[in-house]
Amino acid sequence: MRNDPVEQDPPAPAPALPDSPARTPAAGRVPGRALAILAMIGSAACWGSATVMSRDLLYAIPPVTLLVVQLTASVAFLVVLSAPHVFWRYRSRRFARAASIGLLEPGATYTIGLVGLALTTAGSASVIGASEPVLIPLVAFLIFGHRPSRRLVACIAVATLGLVLVSSASAALPGASPLGDLLIVLATLTAATYVVLSARIAGDYPTATLASGQQAVGLAFGLGAFALVAATRLDETGLDALTPGILAYAALSGVVQYALAFWLYLIGLRRFSAGAAGLWLTLIPVFGLLGAWLWLGEVPTLMTLVGAAMIVAAVTLGRGEE
User: Fold this and answer.
1) Where in this protein does the record put region Disordered (predicted)?
2) How many domains would you assign to the chain?
3) What pLDDT score was predicted for residue 176?
4) For 86, left (φ over 0), alpha (ψ -120 to 50), or beta?
5) pTM above 0.85, yes or no
6) What is the CA radius of gyration of the chain?
7) CA angle 182, 71, 294 (to 5 degrees)
8) Is 236 domain-assigned?
């Protein structure tokens, strides 16, 4: 008989509670504020730089094929990263439900998003993606009734305006597609929903364990999409047509964009609410600009620099929100 399950430490919690997470200090620890901030900045840096890499790779690899290569490398990396926590001990129906959130992101979000990115301009996609920090508090309110503070709403508004300034110049370039833009809108909505749902369970499992489970589900989704594309012959470019160098480049981008980015982001979600976490996402295009300048030689305009400064200022003012 257990009258106080929080304070007692049963010797064998897994057999007694097979549908609950195997709580360990690593699973339940809330990171310090400084670590959470560094994790959020690191995740934005990973996503921003990897977006440049993916944009480069889409010239050589079809979207769904790229997703499968990236997620395969990411899951392998995360399994190794989560091994010290003996991740197989966390098998349960509850963990399966937590991992199933990976159907939203990276599954649906990046399958749809990469197809949309291949159909439209990167600038147009960036403008639409700028709505995610706004959508996150909205989705959190619709699903759970969470009301963001006025300060957080103001900071998100300033950051979103900065995002629009950063992306507006490239969005005006020819090549934008209504269908591609619609797919990016759908991908942004699924990404916002992922953040809201993952914020509820981020502290229940070791971060690498949760990320590996979610991305394994996302990989299964991507493999299903890959099989559909192959069966319908929408794209006949096979893996055998890719050089080892391209495959290695794609695998590296997958580790950066999925393994490291999601691992760091889930660490931050242990401390920050979904709405506050969304504010840090506005740093992604700032790092994307830096990566495009260093990697692709793209020189930012004055408008993009002003927008980037607005984003950094908004994040600085809103960093006290948790």
Assistant:
1) 1-24
2) 1
3) 58
4) left
5) no
6) 20
7) 75
8) yes
Contact 35, 266 (CB under 8 A): no
Domain span at residue 246 reads 31-318
**Rounded to the nearest 10 degrees, how much is the dihedral formed by the CA atoms of 46, 48, 49, 55?**
130
Q: Provide long-range contacts, Cβ within 8 A and 24+ apart, for 142-149.
A: 143/193, 143/196, 143/197, 144/196, 144/200, 146/273, 146/274, 146/275, 148/275, 149/321
The low-confidence residues of the chain, meaning pLDDT below 70, are 1-28, 86-88, 121-124, 126-127, 130, 167-177, 236-238, 296, 298, 319-322
Per the structure block, which two tokens stand in for 44? 């934005």
pLDDT at site 78:
94
* Domain membership flag for residue 24: no
Nearest to 74 by CA among 189, 217, 186: 217
pLDDT the model gives residue 8: 44
**Taking a C-beta distance cutoff of 8 angstroms, is the pair 258, 212 a contact?**
no
Instruction: Label each residue of the chain as H, E or C.
Output: CCCCCCCCCCCCHHHHCCCCCCCCHHHHCCCCHHHHHHHHHHHHHHHHHHHHHHHHHCCCCCHHHHHHHHHHHHHHHHHHHHHHHCHHHHCCHHHHHHHHHHHHHHHHHHHHHHHHHHHCCHHHHHHHHCCHHHHHHHHHHHHHCCCCCHHHHHHHHHHHHHHHHHHHHHHCCCCCCHHHHHHHHHHHHHHHHHHHHHHHHCCCCCHHHHHHHHHHHHHHHHHHHHHHHHHHCCCCCCHHHCCHHHHHHHHHHHHHHHHHHHHHHHHHHCCCCHHHHHHHHCCHHHHHHHHHHHHHCCCCCHHHHHHHHHHHHHHHHHCCCC
Flag whether 243 is in a domain: yes
Residue 47 lies in a domain: yes
Contact, 285 vs 311, CB < 8 A?
A: yes
Please count the other Cβ atoms lying within 10 Å of the Cβ belonging to residue 233: 7
> What is the pLDDT at residue 88?
67
The pLDDT of residue 16: 34
